[in-house]
Amino acid sequence: MRxxxxxxxxxxSNHKIIESGVKRVIHxxxxxxxxxxxxxxxxxxxxGIIMEIVYFPLRIYAGGYHASREAVCKxxxxxxxxxxxxIISYVYIPKKEENMAYNTINLRHEATFKTCIYKNVYWVxxxxxxxxxxxxxxxxxxxxxxPFIFGTEIHLxxxxxxxxxxxxxxxxxxxxxxxxxFEQVPWQLHKSGKYAYETNHGCCASSAAWLxxxxxxxxxxxxxxQWIRPDGSGxxxxxxxxxxxxxxxxxxxxxxxxxxxxxxxxxxxxxxVNSKFSSGACIQVKELEDFINYHRKIFLWKGYEFNYLKKKxxxxxxxxxxxxxxxxxxxxxxxxxxxLTMKDFSYESRKYKKQMRIPIEYTDEYN
Length: 367
Prior knowledge:
Distance between the termini: 82 Å
Strand order of the largest sheet: 1-2-10-9-8-7-11-14
Number of strands: 15
Radius of gyration: 27 Å
Largest sheet: 8 strands, antiparallel
Number of helices: 10
Shape: elongated
Helix content: 25-40%
Number of domains: 2
């Protein structure tokens, strides 16, 4: 106002008009700045900008409540902005045509989106890997009559398998690893996919083998993707290679218990980022290295430096054992994985010997 007055733009006749205009501009800047800050915090900057663009003319021409004091006006205005962005970011509004008979706790059969969560890393609906042919009730009925028809006579696509896993059979997460010592090495054994299906509970390796068993040969290229933590423990998920794209599926995050904390398939980035188990989403990448770059960035700030393995299609995750030698993590496996990263890490593939006498339920032969 002083600058305008100094240059002669303010006169006694227009003083109040200019003062009112300057205040209005300041308020607009404050409103827009709040939208940017709140939108950034809620991971909905674009939605916030669009809301403000629409909101601005609406307030001018639609009228509304006029507060008696400026402070009350600001509280109401800023409050409406925060509440509006909160609804956009966090409230899931199902579509009218959405068929709930095919939905699960977090999967949505009618979802259509491709959300970029990192460079070359996308969140897509699970039905990208195939539309469901069965309603939940149909799968329930089939499971009651002939529970072991799945994986043998009938192979399900990934979406259908998650329906069965989450809504019908209610697979439970548990630590089912057993130890088999041979030649002074305490090998960790994992269930075969068929045995995991029969027992209906298990760790990440069991649930990954479960999915591999149920889908059968519906996908021409599939396998496992594993990351090894600095302490030697690890986590295994499934991958499917379809139309020159990798799709990553973490069945551990999709149990009935954990799915409640996995992202509902809204396509909203905020829903993905703020979920406890973001790995409960279907992730699409052109190369596995793209996911590795994303995954490493998430955990590096926590001080974790993971290593990653790609495993071929098999009925059972191979027996393994890890130990530290000085500052090097040694990972032994009765298999032949492809090592994708090597940070203070050494991989050694060993051959299975019949003298080990591994229970058949923990081998590829149990199928």
